[in-house]
Amino acid sequence: MATFDFHQLDRFSGSSTSIRRPREFTYFSFDEKHELRPLSTESLSYYHPPVFNAPGTHAPPIDLSAGFDTFVQRDDGIDEHLDALLDTLQAHEEQLLQSVQEDDTKIGDVRTQADVITWRGMMTKILTAAFDIFNEFEMNATCFQGTISFVEENNAAKAARRTAQNTQNTPRGGVPQEMMQYWGYKFETLSVLPKPWAECTRHEIEAREVQTVNNNAQFCSIVRTGIGATSLIIAGEVDAVLGEKPDSPDDPIPWVELKTSAEQTGHPREAVKFERKLLNYWAQSFLLAVPTIMVGFRTPDGFLTRIQELSTQRIPSMVKQGSRTWDGNVCINLTGAFLEILKRTVVGGGVWRISRKQGEKRIEVFKVEDAGTGNIIRPSFKAHREKL
Ligand code: A3P
Ligand code: MG
Ligand code: MG
User: pLDDT tens for residues 123-176?
Assistant: First the structure.
């Protein structure tokens, strides 16, 4: 068992440990039915803001609640493990293998190598552990062929608890939680196009206003990156691209993350609350090299008021000049140090629990199964690796 203690944040301050710029090397889509499409861009979206409040136009106000009754919502009661990520790595490796076989001048191992493979959501929780006051998690980790994978399990049970809470909670300002969540997806639907703007007809652009909101479709980017001496492969959803994806895989991708947030009324408490929210925006976007975040501000009853563009890279310095509720360098250094402990602990066969309880300033890593890889590495991926 290993305990990673972060009571003393001083030891993580100062300039940040080295970071390798995240670079996409493969991707996948979930279609409208949430079926996996490895190596497919079919659910990639293109950012194009909705028209509203523009001087000289008579566009009506945008009500983010519109269409709530027809919301097609993804079933989050299913444990997805790392399956979509592993299936995509498999497809990627099979494709590489084929090109190696066709062109016998290229030789080498087609297996994707990294110290760590996980979802962006898992890394966000670690990156924000020191400063997110509600932060808690239970993840399972295993080491397979020299790579550590970790993921939260039992989300099905958690989703059921969340639904129960949503129905029990006295809605804030009379708005149910489900509606607030819908506003986020509605804002996404209104802000993206299924193909580049130049290829869309006016009708296709306007059709977004009446389009059914469906959160089954997702486009996920898979990147290689590094924090300190740890190499990582991270996969996560990206909401949209600004313009188009560059032709060269070496060029950074102008991804856009979309968020909704309550309009500020000038009260200092609200500014602090927003700064805390920025921690999650920043961590999530930083990990996949998403350079821009578009925040759709809204009234308490869900009418869009304005869209503010934030530069991910500048968020930590905004916070330094604000209430200093968190520090980006501390987040990165803490993550680098935690990954070192993980690499030392998760060695050999078996399954480990990575546990952080709310309010406790430590992450514990302890063995829960003596052999095997639990539910983390699916059998089809193992069979694929045996064939290589
Ligand atoms: P907003 O946060 O913009 O309101 P994401 O921003 O990560 O792309 O997620 C899109 C929307 O999914 C969010 O919109 C929110 O409505 C919902 N969502 C994301 N993470 C959530 C969580 N942990 N719990 C509940 N809803 C969440
Ligand atoms: Mg998203
Ligand atoms: Mg978003």
Answer: 999 999 999 999 999 999 999 999 999 999 877 777 777 777 766 665 666 899
Q: Please give the Cα distance from 252 to 155 (Å, whole number).
A: 33
Who's near 259: CB < 8 A, 6+ residues apart?
A: 184, 281, 293, 294, 295, 296
For residue 237, the ligand 1 atom closest to its alpha carbon is: 8
Distances (CA, A) of 359 to 233, 353, 364: 29, 18, 13
Q: What is the CA radius of gyration of the chain?
A: 22
Burial class (CB in 10 A: 0-12, 13-18, 19+), 60: exposed
Which residue from 30, 163, 181 has its CB within 8 A of the most atoms of ligand 1, so it is best to mutate?
Answer: 181
Tens of pLDDT, residue by residue over 349-386, are 999 999 999 999 999 999 999 999 999 999 999 999 99
Residues with CB under 6 Å of ligand 1 are 181, 183-185, 239, 259-260
- Would you give the DSSP letter of residue 18? P
DSSP 224-282: EEEETTEEEEEEEE--EESS---SSTTSPP-EEEEEEEEPP-S-HHHHHHHHHHHHHHH
Ligand closest to Cα of 307 equals: 1
0.80 exceeded by the pTM? yes
**By three-state DSSP, how is residue 127 classified?**
helix
SS3 298: strand
Decide: helix, strand or coil at residue 37.
Answer: strand
Q: How many CB atoms lie within 10 A of CB 274?
A: 18
Q: Which of 75, 74, 68, 59 is nearest to 212 (CA)?
A: 68
Ligand 1 atom closest to Cα of residue 239: 8
Beta strands (DSSP E) in 116-189 are 116-119, 137-144, 147-152
